[in-house]
Amino acid sequence: MKLSPHFTLAEMTVSQTAARRGIDNTPGDSEIAALKALSIEVLEPVRAHFDRPVIVSSGYRSPELNRAIGGSSTSQHCKGEAADFTVPGVSVLDLARWMHRNLQYDQLIYEFGRWVHVSYRAGALRNMELSAKRIAGRTRYLPGIQE
Asked: What's the whole-number mean pLDDT along residues 78-87?
């Protein structure tokens, strides 16, 4: 099923952990609608601007899958509202900074310099930016997009 011109439901739900552990990662209708909005409003503009594929490493996560990987119990991934991704040939920092300047989103997190987490939801958007870093062996979320 196509969610948008360049994104499919299959790529937004694929999970090696789910496959290995036999976890059903099938979203419901409301999660599919949220994935469509995320794809159209955020991922498609990223792809168009950089003119490169967007590689999604984590999209929708069923509650069981989210628990299995140690995700937050309030993760927007479980609602189909979030994706973690990279764009080959584009630095993650440049990607996050461009998104911050040009897109509307709920939350944008520059994660460990390795990928971008973005969420999009219906209704009021927070346009919140954070940077995830390992400090003294613990994950810390700092305000803004920071190297």
From this structure: 98
